[in-house]
UniProtKB/TrEMBL annotation:
Protein family: Belongs to the GART family.
Recorded catalytic activity of this chain's protein: N(1)-(5-phospho-beta-D-ribosyl)glycinamide + (6R)-10-formyltetrahydrofolate = N(2)-formyl-N(1)-(5-phospho-beta-D-ribosyl)glycinamide + (6S)-5,6,7,8-tetrahydrofolate + H(+)
Function: Catalyzes the transfer of a formyl group from 10-formyltetrahydrofolate to 5-phospho-ribosyl-glycinamide (GAR), producing 5-phospho-ribosyl-N-formylglycinamide (FGAR) and tetrahydrofolate.
Organism of this sequence: Halopseudomonas salegens
Domain called Formyl transferase N-terminal: residue spans: 3-179
GO cellular component: cytosol
Marked site: Raises pKa of active site His: D142
The protein's name: Phosphoribosylglycinamide formyltransferase
GO biological process entries: 'de novo' IMP biosynthetic process
Domain of life from the UniProt record: Bacteria
Any single Pfam family the record assigns to this protein: Formyl_trans_N
Length: 207
């Protein structure tokens, strides 16, 4: 099986989508949150998945937290680490340790709107299209090779909350799709970028 550890900070609706939609051989073996109140921990417990909190506030530096986090992740011996609303900047050491085996979901059509407040920024820019992206994690924040993107139309009376809600529906389809590919050995990362089966995925990701 493909052993998967999911990292979360909050609600964990993407974790829930993974719990509900992953197929064999994908197997979520652990969930780690950096906030004790993260509701996703309860979702993991309800699904009978090992879960724990590593509170970043208990550490004096980012390096110390990430070292402890790596040790906790590696205790599960994962083949893949999935960032699902994990709202932390990662140290270069952690990123390089999981090179080619860490995925992230970002709530925009990357490379547009790296960072925070993506829905508000898309609205302020007058975009007619918005969405979400799955990508491999590299040293560049929200900059690794794209895997797949899902699009939504922006409606005239959208606000950041209504737009975010529609983007999340897309996220809940996209993440299980990409993680199932990885677990099946179809999705890889090499020097040229992300590949699905033998095909190099273009700079804009699959659509
Ligand atoms: C998701 O919308 C995800 O795209 C976003 O956080 C949300 C988590 O929701 N991630 C980022 O903003 C990463 N910088 P969830 O906890 O319900 O899955």
């Amino acid at each position: 099986s493909c052993r998967i550890v999911v990292l979360i900070s909050g609600s964990g609706s993407n974790l829930q989508a993974l719990i509900d939609q992953l197929d064999t051989p994908a197997d979520i073996v652990g969930v780690i949150a950096n906030r004790p109140q993260a509701y996703g921990l309860q979702r993991a417990a309800a699904a009978g998945i090992a879960n724990e909190c590593l509170d970043h506030q208990d550490y004096t530096s980012r390096e110390a937290f990430d070292q402890a986090l790596m040790a906790r992740i590696d205790a599960y011996q994962p083949d893949l680490v999935v960032l699902a609303g994990f709202m932390r900047i990662l140290t270069p050491e952690l990123v390089s340790h999981y090179r080619g085996r860490m995925l992230n979901i970002h709530p925009s059509l990357l490379p547009r709107y790296k960072g925070l407040h993506t829905h508000q920024r898309a609205l302020e820019a007058g975009d007619v299209e918005h969405g979400a992206t799955i990508h491999f994690v590299t040293q560049e924040l929200d900059g690794g090779p794209l895997v797949v993107q899902g699009r939504v139309s922006v409606l005239t009376n959208d606000n950041p909350e209504t737009l975010a809600a529609r983007v999340q529906l897309v996220e809940h389809q996209l993440y299980p799709l990409a993680v199932n590919w990885f677990a099946q050995g179809r999705l890889r990362f090499d020097a040229e970028g992300a590949r699905l089966d033998e095909e190099l995925i273009g700079p804009d990701g699959l659509r």
